[in-house]
Amino acid sequence: MSGEFPLHRVLEAILFASQKPVPVKELSSICKGAADGAKENPFVTCFAKLKQDDIMEAIRRLEEEYRETGRAFEVRESAAGWQLVTRADFSPWLRQLFPENRSAKLSAPALETLAIIAYRQPITRADIEAVRGVAVDGVMQTLLDRGLVRIAGRAEIPGRPLLYETTQYFMEHFGLKNLDDLPNAGELRRIPLPTATPAVVEPPDGEGTPELPFAGDPSAGEPVSEGTEQPVVENPESGEPGDAETK
Question: For residues 245 and 45, what is the distance between their CA atoms, to the nearest angstrom?
């Protein structure tokens, strides 16, 4: 397709202006919407019948151009779509430019817990503790508060404990298109891990007592009763999940 502006330049403008990743379907919809609103302009209407292959070819052209010219930014795909981001090489200067946006570091225990959830999700808190060998109440609350982990439902076992999984924000923050992009994903998912075998004490009606959600978790949908165990405070150790790229 040709016109006053080639397709890869049109997509470049869209991605540059967008504050969030844009999926291919939305890129196509934007181009078609612009064509409908400018029926007298042939340079706009020429993109009315875009196909996904056309958009992907234009994105590959942008990738190649940025790579060959050594630009400070790149076009990157995440689980939410495509986005223009600055390259990680320039993070030392960008941190100085936006000091107020610097994310707080996660402790080493929190990173370990997050890794277990990422590779073995959905997973119960008891199984996480069986792997780590310590209580994870405090770090789980931290991961929930940061939006990296969410409650995925309840396990179909006695007591019906909560299940946890990573969020869309986790995928975007670490620049993942899907969970298969995790390092050594296939191997680490197959390695046998310790599992919890809790002794569930059943009340007279024969139903196990369900696990209560953490205090302050907005996704739990139910209050925490008084007397719930307080989160364990972890020692703040160094460890950072990585700085999100800045446009």
Answer: 34
CATH number at residue 157: 1.10.10.10
Residue 75 and residue 134 share a domain: no
Question: How many other C-beta atoms lie within 10 A of the C-beta of residue 7?
Answer: 22
Range of the domain at 207: 104-221+229-234
124 within a domain of the structure (yes/no)? yes
Q: pLDDT 10s digit of each residue in the chain, 247 long?
A: 445 789 999 999 999 999 889 999 999 999 999 988 877 788 888 888 889 999 999 999 999 999 999 999 999 988 789 999 999 899 889 888 887 766 668 889 999 999 999 999 999 999 999 999 999 999 999 999 999 999 999 999 888 999 999 998 898 888 888 888 888 776 766 777 777 765 444 444 544 445 656 654 544 443 333 333 333 334 334 344 444 444 4
Q: Structural domain tally of the chain?
A: 2
- In angstroms, the CA 114 to CA 158 distance is 25
The CA distance from 122 to 51, in Å, is 36
Backbone phi and psi for residue 124, each to the nearest 5 degrees, phi listed first: -85, 160
Q: Same domain for 81 and 108?
A: no
Same domain, 14 and 48: yes
